[in-house]
């Protein structure tokens, strides 16, 4: 393993750190947007209802996950992926400048649109270029590559929600949005410097990658039966991952708005104070980022050990199922916290149980999510690589559009009953998936 890592191209680290800078800005601003909208104008916010905050946060997540499939399609056929990436970074920077100057929903919509289009040019194409710096047939290397990339992503998430959130709560949300914009412009410069280390990766649209002998004919070549099965398999795993992300993203809303402190737009069901210091609710996001950094290499080691067993490692379908089951425990933790606090009628619950929620949601995430790009790079037909890399986050568009309205609908019921029902449903889904894992694995490993 050590020798393999020493041979990794320096270009990979340029692509990964680009994710760090972009995710640092994105996760800080995503949290900031939800709080900025509901915070009273006297405290530097817009003073709108929390249902508006949930809906706008939902729109940001949704549109930043549908545009990568469009950006991937463009990168497959028409434009050099390595040029689309800095264009996306500039657009995202302009988006956060709009949030900096926002005085109503119009400017926030402009921010969401610019950030979404920029993300479409950036996200899947960075992963596609990173994957093409390595032999695509070497699955063990690809697993390690995308686990390390996932760590860089979460370093950005952790730094943004930990440190930029302090800027927001102590200085203001507008200065935080401005700093997020500067991060994207710096990221553009970083990418342009790093392009000389990419070799031929991303110089041309993915379908004319010169490493393939019949590259010019690949777009016209029909899919084989096995390739069709694998496209279906990617879509099936993506569908179930969408169920995971629907609940995963929704968890943030009650953390901010029910369990969050009143001073940050919440209802005060949990105590976020450490002495006289009140933690930003963004530190819930930070816990997720930090735990991903810690747990990703641990789980990578677990999967490597499991591959040495006669029966091999778990398949992607199994890992997705287990991730959903663990996410069910995350929702159970929130229900317990609501019971202890009496849904706001008793003393605030200790914030420890909120962070236990973060532990469960992160364990569920790292079990399967870091391997999504690796799974696609291994099983996607060459002619659809960019598109399939966009399909993986496509489902999160629907999850993102749904979690805000779902949260607002659940808010009309008792928290314990509503979220208890959610926990029961997703745990049942995970168990059903486990029952079909053998058939799924046979489906994608068949012969022509």
Describe the structure.
It is a single chain. The protein is mainly α and 448 residues long. It is 73% helix and 2% strand. It contains 15 helices and four strands. It has helices spanning 2-6, 10-38, 50-77, 81-100, 105-131, 139-170, 173-194, 225-257, 282-307, 316-341, 352-368, 372-379, 385-410, 415-435, 437-444, and strands at residues 270-271, 273-274, 277-278, 349-350. Helix 10 runs antiparallel to helix 11 (352-368). It starts with a helix and ends with a helix.
Architecture blueprint of SSEs:
Layout lengths: L1 H5 L3 H29 L11 H28 L3 H20 L4 H27 L7 H32 L2 H22 L30 H33 L12 E2 L1 E2 L2 E2 L3 H26 L8 H26 L7 E2 L1 H17 L3 H8 L5 H26 L4 H21 L1 H8 L4
- Would you tell me the overall average pLDDT? 88
> Over the alpha carbons, how many angstroms does the gyration radius reach?
22 Å
CATH class (first level) name:
Mainly Alpha
Spatial order of the strands forming the largest sheet: 1-4
Report the end-to-end length measured between terminal Cα atoms. Answer: 33 Å
Order of helices and strands: HHHHHHHHEEEHHEHHHHH
- Total helices: the number is 15
**CATH level 3 topology:** Growth Hormone, Chain: A
Domain module count: 1
Q: In what range is the share of β-strand residues?
A: under 5%
Structural classification: mainly alpha
Q: Could you say which overall geometry the principal axes of the C-alpha atoms support?
A: globular
Low-confidence stretches: 1-5
CATH architecture: Up-down Bundle
Give helix % range.
over 70%
Count of strand segments: 4
């Amino acid at each position: 393993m050590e020798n393999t890592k020493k041979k990794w191209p320096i270009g990979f680290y340029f692509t990964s750190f680009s994710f760090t800078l972009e995710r640092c800005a994105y996760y800080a601003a995503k949290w900031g947007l939800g709080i900025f909208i509901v915070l009273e104008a006297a405290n530097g916010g817009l003073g709108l209802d929390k249902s508006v905050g949930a809906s706008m946060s939902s729109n940001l997540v949704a549109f930043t996950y549908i545009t990568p499939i469009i950006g991937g399609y463009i990168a497959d056929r028409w434009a050099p992926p390595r040029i689309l990436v800095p264009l996306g970074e500039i657009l995202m920077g302009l988006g956060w400048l709009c949030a900096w100057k926002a005085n109503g929903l119009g400017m926030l919509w402009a921010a969401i649109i610019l950030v979404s289009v920029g993300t479409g040019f950036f996200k899947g194409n960075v992963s596609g270029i990173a994957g093409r710096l390595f032999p695509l047939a070497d699955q063990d290397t690809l697993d390690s590559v995308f686990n390390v990339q996932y760590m860089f992503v979460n370093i950005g998430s952790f730094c943004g929600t930990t440190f930029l959130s302090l800027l927001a709560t102590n200085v203001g949300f507008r200065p935080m949005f401005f700093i997020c914009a500067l991060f994207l412009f710096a990221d553009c410069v970083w990418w342009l410097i790093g392009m000389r280390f990419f070799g031929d990766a991303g110089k041309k649209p993915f379908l004319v990658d010169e490493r393939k002998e019949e590259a010019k004919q690949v777009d016209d070549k029909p899919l084989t039966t096995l390739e069709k099965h694998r496209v279906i398999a990617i879509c099936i795993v993506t569908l179930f991952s969408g169920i995971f992300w629907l609940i995963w993203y929704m968890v943030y809303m009650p953390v901010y708005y029910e369990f969050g402190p009143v001073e940050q737009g919440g209802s005060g069901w949990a105590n976020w104070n450490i002495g006289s210091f009140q933690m930003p609710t963004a530190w819930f996001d930070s816990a997720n980022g930090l735990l991903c950094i810690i747990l990703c290499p641990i789980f990578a080691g677990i999967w490597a050990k499991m591959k040495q067993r006669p029966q091999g490692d778990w398949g992607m379908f199994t890992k997705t199922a287990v991730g959903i089951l663990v996410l069910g425990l995350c929702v159970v933790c929130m229900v317990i916290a609501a019971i202890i606090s009496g849904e706001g009628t008793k003393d605030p619950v200790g914030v420890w149980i909120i962070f236990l929620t973060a532990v469960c949601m992160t364990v569920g995430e790292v079990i399967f999510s870091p391997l999504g790009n690796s799974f696609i790079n291994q099983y996607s037909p060459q002619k659809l690589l960019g598109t399939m890399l966009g399909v993986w986050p496509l489902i999160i568009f629907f999850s993102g559009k749904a979690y805000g309205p779902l949260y607002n609908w659940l808010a009309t019921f008792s928290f314990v009953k509503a979220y208890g029902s959610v926990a029961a449903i997703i745990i049942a889904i995970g168990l059903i998936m486990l029952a079909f894992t053998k058939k799924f694995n046979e489906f994608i490993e068949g012969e022509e």
